[in-house]
Design brief:
Blueprint lengths: L2 H9 L32 H6 L5 E4 L5 H9 L4 E4 L4 H14 L3 H22 L9 E7 L2 E3 L4 H8 L3 E2 L7 E3 L2 H7 L3 E5 L3 E2 L2 E2 H7 L7 H4 L3 E4 L1 H5 L5 H12 L7
């Protein structure tokens, strides 16, 4: 019942066993043809009718009362909320154990570990005083601080999140962002607001033309699904973050 969980289940070879997915699921392509069971509002009747042995949910997307209504009906629910790349990998291993797909889960995690190592190895030569300052915006006027895996991804990629003084998702203080003067600005390239891309919105803000990232054309769009989903592609997202911050270190 969340895109990241669906991606994980498909990745460990459970395509045929999946009897339903959330309305928000769009990857892999095979997920599009699975029965839809609702989005943030779960269609409990549809879930019950599908007679699942297990419902896998994200702790951030599904309300507790929904989970209780399922468990009260005798349906097993597994809830998770991984906050780091390591926790994502551990979660995939756990799902592998629950579903008796341990070998497939280990394979997925090995690939993720290799991608993580690729990044940390590439940026390890960056000295503390030379680390680039990074600002990330995934929804107009919103950024992410510490306690979320996107903040950790910037750190793993050798950058410094200029919003790391705040907790979790937060509305931005424009004055603070201008003052912090990020070297790189990352944004969700799929977001369109009033027919404008997030890049256009960012560049048109008063005073933001003085920010180093804007002056040097280092306002870079990323596939937000790779970064916003704590699933098997999160390390591919990490590679994209590292490429955006240090393209010279992330050569193929």
């Amino acid at each position: 019942m969340s895109p990241s969980e669906t991606e994980g289940l498909f990745a460990i070879g459970l395509d045929k066993e999946i009897v339903g997915v959330s309305d928000n699921d769009d990857y892999p392509e095979a997920a599009l043809s699975k029965p839809k069971m609702g989005g943030f509002q779960v269609n409990v009747e549809s879930v019950v009718a599908a007679e699942p042995d297990l419902v896998v949910v994200s702790g951030t997307m599904i309300k507790e009362e929904t989970i209780k209504s399922l468990t009260d009906l005798g349906i097993k629910v597994f809830k998770s909320n991984p906050k780091t790349v390591t926790e994502v990998m551990d979660h995939i291993k756990t799902i592998g154990q629950i579903t008796d797909h341990q070998a497939e889960a280990e394979q997925v995690v090995k690939k993720m570990q290799d991608e993580l190592n690729q990044v940390t190895e590439a940026v390890k030569s960056v000295k503390e005083e030379d680390k680039k300052k990074v600002y990330i915006e995934f929804s107009p006027g919103w950024t992410v601080g510490k306690g979320e895996f996107m903040d950790e991804m910037i750190t793993l990629a050798g950058g410094v999140n200029v919003a790391s003084d705040i907790e979790g998702w937060s509305q931005i203080n424009e004055e603070n962002i201008i003052k912090s003067n990020p070297d790189v600005i990352l944004y969700a390239k799929s977001v369109i607001d009033n027919n404008k891309t997030l890049a256009e919105i960012i560049k048109e803000r008063s005073g933001w033309d003085q920010i180093t990232a804007v002056k040097n054309d280092q306002v870079i769009g990323l596939d937000d699904n790779l970064l916003s989903r704590p699933g098997p592609r999160v390390t591919q997202g990490l590679i994209e973050v590292a490429k955006a911050i240090y393209p010279e270190l992330m050569k193929p």
